[in-house]
Structures are given as C-alpha cells and as structure tokens.
Write a structure and sequence with these properties.
The structure holds 3 protein chains of 3 kinds. Chain A is mainly alpha-helical. Chain A contains 9 helices and no strands. Chain A has one domain. Chain A starts with a helix and ends in a 5-residue tail after the last helix. Chain B is built from 22 helices and 2 strands. In chain B, α6 packs across α9. The mean pLDDT of chain B is 80. Chain C is mostly helical. In chain C, 69% of the residues lie in helices and 0% in strands. Chain C has a single domain, classed as Helix Hairpins (Orthogonal Bundle). Chain C has 4 helices and no strands. The termini of chain C are far apart. Classes of the chains: A mainly alpha, B mainly alpha, C mainly alpha. At the A-B interface, α1, α3, α4 and α8 of A face α1, α4, α5, α6 and α8 of B.
C-alpha cells in the first residue's frame, strides 16, 4: 500500500489543518473569568518569595518540579550511557572555531558564568531560578571550553567528582522532600525561616532548592555538552 | 501522608542504587517490601472510606497538588509489587549495572505516582518520566533495531504529550483549574460543549499514544518485540495500564463515553486481527496487548461502577498473565534460538518444564478459562454491557484472543522436558500462583458480594464455549491470511493515522 | 480578544512543526520540527493570560494586576522536560547515523527492516 509522495503530502496538509482547526476551536472566547486568581493574594506571604512563579514551582507544586528534575537527570544519564561507548572524535583538543570566536569566548565566559550564578541565587526575587541559571552557567562553561580547549576544562572537572555533585544534589533534594513527609510536617518550606520578601535570604527553603537544582542542571548541561563534544561522530 | 511516600521512596532508592552499585538487587527487594507494607496500610485505611486524598504541603486544592488513593490505586499497586518481585527474580542471574536498577526504580516510582495522581499537569509530568524511562529501557542493549524503536517511541510520545498539553491549556483557559476534583465541580454545566469536546479529544489522543490503543500506539509492536523480555513484561503489564488509569480518571471528570467505546472496539478488533496472523511470538503478544486494551476501554466506556471495577480487575489480571507470557517468551526464545512460533514448536523439547507450565497457565488465563484471572474479570464487563452490539463485540474480541493463542497449543504437549534455572522457576511461580489464585486476591479491591453475584455457571459455560469455537476457527482460517498493511507502523504514516483518528473522533462526538 | 494573539500563532506553529515532522525525511529536521511543536505548546500556555495592562508575576505591591503565574510554572517544567527528551532523541539519531551512514529516515527504516528479516 505504498502511497505516492503527492498523496501523502496532501493527506498530511489536510489532516494537519483539520487538527489545528480543532485546537483553535477549543480556545474560543470564554468571556471574562469570574474567579480571582488563587495565587496572587497569598503567594508572597506564604512562601516569602517575590517571584510568584518561583513560589509556585518550588513550594506549592514542588512535587512536579521533582519529576522534572528526575526527567532531566535520567536524560543526562542516558546521553552519557549511549554515547559513552562510541568512538571518540580524534580532534578534541580544540573545538574548531575561528580566531574571532575564540577570542570573544575568552572575554565572555566569565560574565556569563557570573550571570548564571546570579540567576540561581536571585531566582526567588526576579525571573530566573535553578533551571535557567543552571543552563546559562552550563553554556557559559561551553564557551569556556571553546576558549581554553575542551580537554583542559574536562580535566578540571574530573568525571567522578562531577557525578558525585550531580547525584548528590538530587539525593539531597529527595531527602529534603521526603523527610518532612515522613515526620508529618506539612509545608515543605518550613525548614528555614521565611525572612522579609525582597531580601536575598528570604523564601525559606526556596533558596536551597534553587541552589541544589542549579548545581544539578549546571553539571548536567555540562555533561551533555561535553559528551557531545567528545563523541562527535561522523556520517 | 503515607501515599506520597510510595513514589518518593522508589526515587530515593533509585538514586541510592546508582551510588551503591553492588547492592542493586537487594535495594530493589527492600523497596518492594517497603511498598508492600505501605500498600497493606493503605488497604486497611480503605476498608472504612472509598478514597484517601491529601494535598502535598497542606495547601488548598486549588493551589497545591492533590494526591488521591482509592481502590484503583490499591489494585494496581498489588499488580506492580507482584510484577516487581517476578521481574527482579527473573533477572537474578543477569549482571546489570546500577543504571538499569535506577531505571527500574524510576519506572516503579512513576507507576505509583501515576496511581495517586489527581491533577492534569501532574499526569503530564509523570507520563513524561514514564516515556523517558521506558524508551531508555527499550534501547538498553543498544542494538540498532532497539534504538530505532526507542526513537520512534520517543518522538511519538513527545508529540502526544504536546497534544495533551494543548488539551490542558484549553481546559485551564475555560475553567481556571487543573485539579480534577475541582474540575468535576466546574464542568458540571459544561458537558457537551464544543470546547470541552475538543479538549477531551486532545487529552485522550495524547494519552492514547502511550496507552497501547491500536490506532495511536503503532510503535508498540516494534518496541515490545525488540526489547528485553523483562522490559516487555513490565511495559505491557504495567506501563500501558498507567495510560488506562489516566483515561479512567479523566472519564470520571469529562464525559467521553463515545470516544472510549469507539476506540475500544477498533483497538480490540484490529489488535486481535493482527495478532492472529503474526507468527513472531513477542510481536504477537504485543498486538494482543493492544487488543486487550480495547477490552478494558469498552469497560471504562460503559461507565457504570461495576463495569469500571471489571475493567480494573481485568487490567490487573492482564498485567499478571501478559507479564508471565512475556517472561516465558524470553525463555522460549533463549532455549530454542528462534523468534518464530512454528520453529519454536518444532524445537519444543528444549524448553524447560517450568516455562512450559507457565506458558500453559498464561495462555489458558488469557483465553478466559475459568476460574483463572481472565474469566473472572470478563464476566463483570460482559454483565454490565447491556447493549447487544457491545455483547457481540466483546464476544468477537474474546474469540479473536483465543484464535491468536490457539497456535500455541502444540506447546502444551509434554515429552521429556529439561529443568530450567531456579530463579526463573521461582519468578514464574510467583505470577502463576497469582493468576490461579486471582479470585481471592481480588477480594482486596473488589467487594466479595459483587463477585459472587456475577459469577455463575452460565458464564463458565460461555467461556468454555468461546475457547472451543476459537480453536476450531483457528484451524479453519489459518491458511488464509488477509493482506494486512505493515506500512502504518512507520513514523509518518503513524502520525497521519493518529491525526485522522483524532479528527474522526471529534467529528463523531460532535455529530452525536 | 484580538484575532492574532499568542494562541493563534502557537497553533499555526504547531501545524508547521507537525507538517515538518511528517513530510521531511531527514532525521535531524524531524527533531527540529519536534522542537517547534514543543515550543508552540509553550507559547500557547504562556499566552493564555497575557494582557497589555497586567504586570509580570513578580510581586511589586498589593492592588496591582498581575498575569496568572500558574501557566508560567507549568511551562518551566515543560521546557526542561522537552529539552531532556530532545537531547536523548538527538543521541539516538547520532547512534543511528553512525551505524547506517545516512540521516534519511526512510533508508534507515529500510535497512532495519532488511536486518530484522535475516
């Protein structure tokens, strides 16, 4: 039942258009909402964080963020597991880039790493947080690898220490979530005082979670990137 | 607080088994024992109330994540623990890395998390974790076929979850909540409205890709056939059921009777058709899983309380015997060296005794022979389907099951059979006993009075009759295979079929 | 509600991504299309409550109008998860390409079909 290319393309166009129409139809105008948003009035007083979104995903819906973290960790592990056995690319000393790129990378990687740390630490006060900060820091490290050479950076971040940091952070996060549950303490963030909103040391355990997640995502992103650099593969 | 511990413990143990590499098996057994303890306490709580509901963190329902444990949770938790013990014992002699144990722990943890989930986005996140872990387990041996099957699965699942999220977005846009208890209230006046139908179809389509429904899960035969047998056992026996659980929870909040019935019928019939003419053992089992999923969907689609209990019971039973069959198929393939049934039959004296017995029990159970697992649950669903069309449909699907498995009959004839490795025998006996003893086992989640009211000799006779007719039908039709398209299993055609099904379901629902 | 807003753009992008996933044969392009699909869902979620007159959900005082913060939190999770899945899919693609020396999905499927039959 081999269909011709034209038939397949037309079928695809028609079906996709219909599917999009169904989705768009679902968003038909609903009128103004009569219910006030339940988060807006209480989020800052409950969590102590000015960033309402951080309050949600690190306090009210911490459970979801746990799964998200697990998905990320397992994906990183999977990447290393699968690519770890393929042939290593012969030229890993320097990532082949032009001189201009290497020079600008040299200039830029330290501010970017700093920005990543800032995003992690201030995640509860302004947009950012562990995930984005960790990703920024990880890509900052990639720039560092472009500037200084992948081998140098990889040697500094020796693999077993990295693994310890990565999974240690995850283990601590799991413990932090599990232990209050075992002892029947309710809100997650009661382990630390809340502080005044707007200060750096506010938000209770939010800050700790942000830092742990930031470490995990930073190391994870670097592992993924460095594995891709090392096992570049060829067609 | 205790129900949240089920998934979290498994995650903790998973990470621990990555750090303590030698202790993988021991950690897993310990985790299963802890699970059993928690499940036992859960069962005790559920004697007095229908469900336990907590919101993590103690917040209100509208801002926190709610977890609900009810009889459905209990039923599938028992299945999970049984399958867990069986699979770990089966893998006793294989030297597996800490990575594999981590994946197993995450699989079980996410299964438990799905069983208590009561929030649309929580379901999304848990499903994504299940997808990821399943796809890594499928491709574990890194053979090209496995990687290709994994990649297909990953892409289809990602697409499915994207569609699902659109459904969630639509629902949140119109109701302002993603918690299912609150949704049940807010949707009371809105059933049957256009946007709700669209959202429902999107949600169902998204989950259906993972749940093994024929039109949507065209990745399934390739994945189950190429994966390691223990992985296939877990996927078919446990992970697919999580899609069913998700659909069950959704169907209690949004009215989706028609799509579920239609999907169930199509899946049941087409799955049985393909299974009847497939001679690769594991691929046939995979097709057959899809057919059985159709059965369960019809039960959920009918919607009455007894029908849903029947579906759940059937799902648990199916998990047990399909798990057993996949494990035995692994042994069969290993000892005979072939993947095709005719060759395996001719080489059957190599197959160990325990494997043969297990195969017999599994096949009989799947055919619905009383008083094993399949029969009991089929009764419940059949009783509740009042419409004649449904009764006929269910009968035909059961017939299809028997026809597909009739080709395994020659395995039952015993000559000399060697003795197999001890751990595998133990693993099979765990599941075998559960199947044979299914009736008393199910008393934990199905009230005894309801069982006794439904089972009667009339049903038993009907069951045996179907088996007999099925075997005869098999002899008649086996020489005439229809031209079944194998092309729909490629990615592009699969997506096209999914889209067509989505649009068709929407049109159907709007028309009625 | 204007006709052209985040949601409509998201649906159009979803359609384009889906088309790309079906029509194009190259595996890497398929992954890009999948990424587009994921991004479109993100856009749809975020623009559910996007208004001109409301502030981003960083607390600046009571009595002000803020955008709904819940979809933002959901989107954070969705972005990370999609990134993880794409990375893994890319690894699978790399392994397959290395083995079969082509990025054409039809050729790879054909080769694998041939190998399974042997």
């Amino acid at each position: 039942m081999r269909t011709s290319k034209l038939a397949q393309t037309t079928a695809a166009l028609v079906l996709v258009a219909c599917a999009c129409a169904i989705i768009a139809f679902g968003f038909s105008y609903r009128g103004p909402l009569d219910r006030p948003n339940p988060y807006l009035s209480r989020a800052t007083t409950d969590t102590g964080a000015t960033n309402l979104v951080a309050g949600i995903y690190l306090d009210y819906r911490l459970y979801d963020s746990l799964f998200e973290l697990l998905v990320f960790s397992v994906a990183v592990l999977g990447v290393r597991f699968y690519l770890g056995t393929t042939r290593q690319s012969p030229n890993t000393k320097a990532i082949p880039e032009s001189q201009a790129v290497r020079a600008s990378a040299d200039l830029l990687f330290s501010p970017i790493l700093l920005i990543g740390v800032y995003l992690i630490l201030f995640g509860h006060l302004s947009p950012g947080g562990g995930f984005s900060g960790g990703a920024v820091a990880g890509t900052g490290l990639l720039l560092c690898a472009v500037a200084l050479g992948a081998e140098t950076v990889a040697r500094r971040f020796h693999s077993t220490q990295l693994e310890l940091f990565e999974w240690g952070a995850l283990f601590v996060v799991l413990l932090l979530v599990l232990i209050p549950l075992i002892f029947g303490l309710s809100p997650f963030t009661d382990l630390l005082p809340r502080g005044a909103p707007g200060e750096l040391l506010s938000g209770g355990t939010l800050l700790i979670y942000n830092v742990l997640i930031g470490i995990k995502v930073f190391v994870g992103t670097w592992v993924v990137i460095s594995t891709f650099i090392r096992h570049r593969g060829e067609i | 607080m205790s129900i949240a511990l089920l998934p979290l413990f498994h995650f903790l143990f998973g990470v621990a088994s990555l750090i303590w590499k030698k202790g993988g098996k021991r950690l897993f057994y310990l985790a299963l024992v802890i699970d059993s303890a928690i499940i036992a306490s859960l069962a005790q709580h559920l004697l007095h109330q229908t469900s336990i509901s907590i919101v993590l963190g103690g917040w209100g329902r509208d801002i926190g994540i709610e977890l609900v444990a009810d009889r459905v949770t209990l039923a599938f938790s028992i299945l999970a623990v049984l399958l867990g013990f069986a699979v770990v014992t089966y893998l006793w002699r294989d030297h597996l890395r800490g990575y594999f144990h981590l994946l197993l722990h995450l699989l079980f943890g996410s299964v438990f998390a799905m069983l208590v989930a009561h929030d649309l986005f929580n379901i999304y996140v848990v499903m994504e974790l299940l997808t990821l872990v399943s796809s890594l387990l499928i491709g574990y041996r890194r053979k090209p076929q496995q990687i290709w099957a994994s990649l297909n699965y990953l892409m289809l699942a990602a697409l499915g979850m994207g569609v699902y999220l659109f459904g969630v977005a639509i629902i949140y846009y119109h109701t302002g909540t993603i918690n299912m208890t609150l949704l049940a209230d807010r949707l009371v006046g809105a059933q049957g409205q256009g946007w709700l139908i669209a959202a429902a179809i999107l949600l169902v389509a998204g989950i259906a890709i993972k749940a093994g429904i024929f039109v949507f899960s065209l990745w399934l035969p390739a994945a189950h056939a190429t994966a390691h047998s223990a992985v296939s056992a877990l996927l078919s026996g446990l992970v697919i059921k999580m899609g069913i659980v998700a659909l069950l929870r959704l169907s209690l909040v949004i009215d989706m009777q028609l799509p579920l019935l239609v999907l169930g019928a199509v899946t049941g019939l087409l799955g049985a058709l393909y299974a009847a003419y497939t001679y690769d053992l594991k691929r046939m089992l995979a097709f057959h899983t899809m057919s059985q999923v159709g059965y369960m969907l019809i039960g959920i689609g009918v919607g009455s309380e007894l029908a849903i209990i029947g579906s759940v019971a059937y799902a648990v039973g199916h998990g047990l015997f399909k798990g057993l069959l996949f494990l035995t198929s692994g042994e069969v393939v290993r000892t005979t060296g072939s993947k095709l049934i005719p060759e395996q039959i001719s080489l059957r004296e190599h197959i160990p005794r325990a494997t043969r017995v297990a195969l017999t029990i599994g096949t009989l159970a799947i055919m619905g022979a009383p008083p094993l697992a399949g029969f009991c649950a089929k009764c419940l669903i059949a009783e509740e389907s009042a419409a004649l069309l449904l009764q006929v449909l269910l009968g035909v699907i059961s017939l299809g099951t028997v026809v597909s498995f009739a080709k395994l009959l020659p395995f039952f004839v015993y000559h000399r059979a060697p003795v197999g490795p001890r751990p595998i025998t133990i693993s099979f006996s765990i599941l075998g006993m559960a199947i044979v003893g299914f009736l008393p086992l199910s008393f934990s989640f199905v009230p005894r009075s309801q069982w006794m009211a439904e089972l009667n000799p009339y049903q038993a006779a009907e069951g045996m009759a179907i088996i007999a007719i099925g075997i005869i039908t098999y002899r008649l039709i086996r020489k005439h295979p229809p031209a079944l398209s194998q092309h729909i299993f490629r990615l592009e055609e699969a997506i096209l079929v999914i889209l067509a099904a989505l649009i068709g379901l929407f049109a159907l629902h709007v028309a009625f | 509600m204007e006709m052209i807003n985040g949601v409509t753009v998201a649906v159009v992008l979803f359609g384009i991504g889906l088309l790309g996933l079906i029509i194009r044969r190259d595996l890497v392009i398929k992954l890009l299309a999948l990424g587009l699909v994921d991004s479109s869902v993100t856009l749809a979620l975020v623009s559910l409550d996007a208004r001109q007159d409301a502030l981003t959900p960083i607390w600046q005082g009571a009595g002000l109008a803020y955008v709904d913060p819940l979809p933002h939190a959901l989107v954070l999770a969705a972005i990370v998860i999609n990134f993880a899945l794409l990375a893994l899919a890319l690894v699978f693609v790399m392994l397959l390409v290395e083995r079969y020396h082509t990025t054409d999905s039809h050729r790879i499927a054909h080769e694998i079909g041939r190998e399974t039959e042997e």
